[in-house]
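Residues pack. One example:


***
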Amino acid sequence: MNPGVGEEAGTTTRTLIEALKSTPAILALVLFNLAFMALVAYIQATNSTRWHELMQQTLQQCGPKT
């Protein structure tokens, strides 16, 4: 029986962690980069929401008066 996608991903992750145990500095850098990318994605998402609200407010104030 063929393993599922989840099982394959788990096996690959375990193998990667085992290989990086001999170089903890590289493992730390990989983890830092993943955390940094998540932080940047969060900042971009919140900035997008803020920008959308600002544009809606600007259009509302500068649009034609009814």
About this structure: Helices lie at 5-20, 24-62. Residues 24-66 form one domain. The CA atoms of residues 5 and 11 lie 10 Å apart.
